[in-house]
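Consider the following input, taken from an annotated entry for Magnesium or manganese-dependent protein phosphatase (Streptomyces azureus).
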Amino acid sequence: MAGLRSVLGGRSVARQVFLLVVVIVLLLVVAAVVALVLQVRHDTTQEARNRSLAVAETFANAPGTIEALESPDPTAVLQPRAEAAREQSKVDFIVVMNTDGIRYTHPKPDRIGKKFVGTLEPALAGRPVTEQITGTIGPLVQAVVPVKAPDGEVVGLVSAGITTANVGGTADRQLPLVLSAAAVALLLATAGAALVSRRLMRQTHGLGPHEMTRMYEHHDAVLHAVREGVLIVDDGGTLLLANDEAHRLLALPADAEGRHVLSLGLDPGTAELLASGRVATDEVHRVGDRLLAVNQRTTDRAGVPPGSVATLRDSTELRALSGRAETARERLNMLYDAGVGIGTSLDVTRTAEELTELAVPRFADFATVDLFDAVLSGGQPDAAAALSRTALSGIRKDAPLYAVGERIRFVESSPQGRSLDTGRPVLEARLAEAAGWQAQDLERSAQIVEYGIHSLITVPLRAGSLVLGVVSFWRCEKPEPFDTDELALAEELVARAAVSIDNARRYTREHSMAVTLQRSLLPRNLPEQDALEIAYRYLPAQAGVGGDWFDVLPLSGARVALVVGDVVGHGLHAAATMGRLRTAVHNFSALDLPPDELIALLDELVGRIDQDETEEDGSAPVTGATCLYAVYDPVTRRCTVARAGHPPPALIHPDGSVEFPDVPAGPPLGLGGLPFETAELELAEGSRLVLYTDGLVEDRERDIDVGLDMLREALGRAGQSPEDTCRTVLDARLTARSSDDIALIVARTRALTADQVAEWPVPADPAAVGEVRAAVSRRLAEWGLDELTFTTELILSELVTNALRYGGGPIHVRVLRDRNLICEVFDSSSTSPHLRYATMTDEGGRGLFLVAQLAERWGTRYLPAGKVIWAEQPLP
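Applying the prediction step yields:
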């Protein structure tokens, strides 16, 4: 009893097993009882159906039943027969009825003559039917069969049935016996479970499942975590258990447990000691290249199976500790040097070369870097594309490895192919035995092995989810192959280099985008014009893309505008800002504004750009944007110049002398609040005007004054043509690539001759229009442009008429023969005409419309003392 109480007490495994067994037996008994009762009841009900059907069919087919149904009083004949048959057949009722369901017989006479309760249709159709219903005597099982005449006609019905109370009686009588048997079975099962639980209590020492699980986990963790090998051997010499350290120290096979120690391939001395089970204390045994100290004790105690426990301790670790510390220090130094020495530039190829130069010979005898072609150009790597050998370093130059620049497609079975596919490093300790590696190139693989390269590590160059390429480390001088520690070092080394290579790739991509943007924004071809002979140079910075720009813009009256500007900074922002400023100058120049007014509008635009960008994203303003704008008139040979924070232009006179004209220096664009001034220069024909950006004369090592002196000297010895001037200036300036962009324009002036210009004053008299037409006709005839006489007369008639009617005196007309025929009408009014559609009732308003239709271009140019309305026609 005491043992049973101990089993039932507490939360031990034994108690839980006992309760579980009792509950299972109880559930089985209950299920068996329920199943038995249900089966008995089912069988009894089926028996009642069969009996009811048999009794009903027997009575229906009995002799005299048909005659009784046809008699005048069927009840008198059939009631005694039915009751006698009911008592004899042990059913609860036999009812005979006509085809309408009116009873002729019933155990209770008061029910005779009443309607039968049940289903009659199948029986009327000639088929017997059995059913469970609630009738006049309660729930019952009944059968209804037809009574058929000799001709098959149904002349009546007979029903026999048994009530549910009588049906279940048999099951109820059997239930006590069933329950008694179940109780006995439960009692026997409980006693058996108690015996089993008592034995289990002794085995588990009363521990609960959580305590046992925790004890096992602690035991397993301690056993496999200790730095000593542990082996348990039974008294027959069979190895029962070996922890991880024992497997490592003895190089045991994976299936060592369960095998005899003499069959494990151990050295004889160690195997004999473990099989003997004798006591040993710190016996030293040599196993491979290790010295193991072995301690062994027997486990033969009361209640413990006989056998022995042996512990192994590696005594060579202390000797190797100092060497390992030195190796670790060298590897840390290598990783530090990698962080400092790899990625010194934003060049993908150079970064790959720095990785290979660092690894050889400190880590490997040869190192190679293979990158996808798209990575070299700054794009996203394509796993299906070929790779290019980007860098190769080695202790010798004659290794039979792929040369730099070769395109390679690694097969899937090669270490490089597996690294690219899985994104994990691969160690091939012995290349001569690696068939998958040799499948890459059988001939070259044989040459590599013959050369002496015997071990390989491949590591993918990963940058986030992108694999940029693969790095291979080859060993030939050191006889030992690469090991797992060196594999981890190679992975860390490549991981650091991958960050730098990816940064260089991203920079290359951004630089390419910025260069593309900048080149698309700079002028590709200079417009055709005869006022200036122009040569130009644009040199991008050594690193990055700047915001230097230039342009040549033809204006009305054969004039030409030269513009050069600089947005301080590099990158996409500077290039995009440069494009916006160049577009703005194009638009403003179409208004024929003086240089100082155009610079003022540009200054206001930069201020708005700064304000909008600062409010939206907090970006820095466009500080340091400069511009120089010059307009040259080949008729007067005058050049009007204005600048905003830009270096002054240089002027080379026809005699070769050089000067820097005094052009007022306005503030850089975007500062606002200060006016801009212009300088007007009269240039002799053949003079060369030199416009440039500050990258030509200024850098970090040289002051701008020194740069201007150098520029003056170079211009003094330059040839006469603008091309020679550009070449001389850049050859003298660029001993190395500049850190800033350089834009240079050299424009040699030309002048329209007196024969190309015709000018007439116009009196304030409408009759003067005819005189102007006549004078123009004569001059066009002299120029051989008779084809343009009619249109020119019409254009000048309308322009002069408008000047006389709406302008103010003095009025004069000028006609220029340049690349086009240009007609200009000057007056003192500042009112600008507007093109419009005249209605049918308007007397005027059609003249300017005709001018616009006849001329290729027309417009208005404002002067300090009035305006000019001009129109251009192409020469035939």
